[in-house]
Amino acid sequence: MIQDRYQLAHRLYPYARSADQDAPAPVRHPVVVIGGGPIGVATALDLGLQGLPVVLIDDHEGVGQGSRAICFSKRTLEIADRYGLGETALAKGVVWNLGKVFHEDRKVFEFNLLPEEGHKFPAFINLQQPYFEKFLVERVREANAAGARIDLRGRNRLEGITPQGRHVTLDIATPEGPYQIEADYVIACDGAGSPTRKLMGLDFEGRVFQDSFLIADITMSAPFPTERWFSFEPAHGAGASTLLHKQPDGEWRVDFQIGWDVDRKEELKEENVRRRLDAMLGPEVEYKIVWTSIYTFQCRRMKAFRHGRVLFAGDSAHQVSPFGARGANSGMQDVDNLGWKLGMVLRGEAPDALLDSYCSERRHGADENILNSTRSTDFITPKSPVSHMFRNAVLDLAEHHPFARPLVNSGRLSLPCVYDDGPLNGADALPGGPERSRPGAPCPDAPLGDGYLLELLASGGFTLLCINCEGPELPEDLPAAIAVQAVTAQIGPLAERYLGDASQAIYLIRPDQHVAARWHTANADEIRAALHHALAME
């Protein structure tokens, strides 16, 4: 029988009766998060670290089964670092930058996802999702011990949701009976099957692709390198394509493309899973099966991520195919975008309209992910003899000609979204400034002193980064606090990534480390105008 070690772990927030269940009337909370996966807990942690009280309800008591998301990107690690767990995840994860593409067991080419130096975190780590969830919950406990008010409620299942204009009423079921609470804002992070979305009569728009993929997590001691191996039409015939990733604890993820017209129950039988694994790994490799599942590519999203005082994030808002590692990574970018905005709205530092920018910016991010994921899917699963012939011709050319390699799409890997034309972007008045640090872009990391630039930009508020200059004196009546940081950069990664051809620069950087505006020189009025714009105050 296939063993599942995740069934025994981890009751991270077991059911406990809350005072709300004994209250004579529904208790009002500023924020209720629905869903205790990585996106939900990260959302609660983000808000809790800002000093806001948060209630999180989940119908389980801890992490789910199976490794599920395993590829956590550099940007996700940078976000996690602001929450205090980036280095913890890095220490446990398997670091990789190199990927290889094969066709019929011939290596077509390889690629390095982070060819430059000067970043705190690698391009990717592989880490089973239960570990990432566990680290988040442990960080919540640490934050609570230091004074945060983050209430994780296990076995609290959402049964009803009723928007009431200025608040939302939630009906919750528990082992000891139902109760009600109210929330100024609700954030739904309850996954692809989102009960919140269904209770509100909302749905996805998009495509479901007609193909199936079998996942097998196995433990083995075979000497495969720490690289991403993707094979098109492998000679062993175990699948139309296969993917191999190394995980911590001697565990490996194997994906098999098995076709659309399959009997899922039959395919998941241990003897049939082993048949594919034996064909791929060879008879001499010993392994133990830890977890298996079958999934279908889906590229879909909600029409809007905000519905009044209910906001959707992660898989509850959008779905993409697993190839490209865009699921959990895009969800963490949702949290990164929403957390500071909701915090400022709840503290009265920004208008409610700021939350509309969450919908527009992250819908842009979802569309970008869906576009890339759809292209990956079309390349991996050609739908006609002609498209199959074209795909293989590209692979043959790529083996010998570099110009063809960008056309190979074995799951174009996740990159952080740039909010080009975003509603909060301000001036771009830095002639010769690098494209990679334009308004809307996430700040690229760079070495700074004994540490890294992004560590300097992790205060949780706005930052005025002055490079090779001091910047203007700021008035006290700005709508939000700004930390002013002056640094020197003549040559090296910081100058290359932020100055380009300019001799100096001033950057206004948002709390989520995205560039709001940049100038060669700027006065207080220009900075005030950019800050008003970044807070949707005009």
Q: What is the secondary structure topology, with strand pairs?
A:
Elements: E1 27-34, H1 38-49, E2 54-58, E3 71-73, H2 74-82, H3 86-92, E4 94-96, E5 98-103, E6 106-112, E7 124-126, H4 129-145, E8 150-154, E9 157-163, E10 168-173, E11 179-188, H5 195-199, E12 204-220, E13 228-232, E14 241-246, E15 251-257, H6 264-267, H7 270-281, E16 287-302, E17 306-307, E18 310-312, E19 318-319, H8 327-346, H9 354-380, H10 385-400, E20 428-429, E21 447-448, E22 451-452, H11 453-456, E23 462-467, E24 482-487, H12 493-498, E25 505-509, E26 515-519, H13 524-534
Parallel strand pairs: 1-2, 1-11, 2-8, 5-13, 11-18, 20-26, 23-24
Antiparallel strand pairs: 3-7, 4-7, 5-6, 9-10, 10-11, 12-15, 12-16, 13-14, 14-15, 16-19, 17-18, 21-22, 23-25, 25-26
Explain this structure.
The N and C termini lie far apart (62 Å). The chain has helices spanning 38-49, 74-82, 86-92, 129-145, 195-199, 264-267, 270-281, 327-346, 354-380, 385-400, 453-456, 493-498, 524-534, and strands at residues 27-34, 54-58, 71-73, 94-96, 98-103, 106-112, 124-126, 150-154, 157-163, 168-173, 179-188, 204-220, 228-232, 241-246, 251-257, 287-302, 306-307, 310-312, 318-319, 428-429, 447-448, 451-452, 462-467, 482-487, 505-509, 515-519. It is built from 13 helices and 26 strands. It is an alpha/beta fold. Among the domains are: 5-94 and 116-204 and 301-368, 3-Layer(bba) Sandwich (FAD/NAD(P)-binding domain); 428-534, Glutaredoxin (3-Layer(aba) Sandwich), CATH 3.40.30. The chain is 28% helix and 28% strand. Residues 1-9 have low confidence and may be disordered. The longest helix has 27 residues, at 354-380.
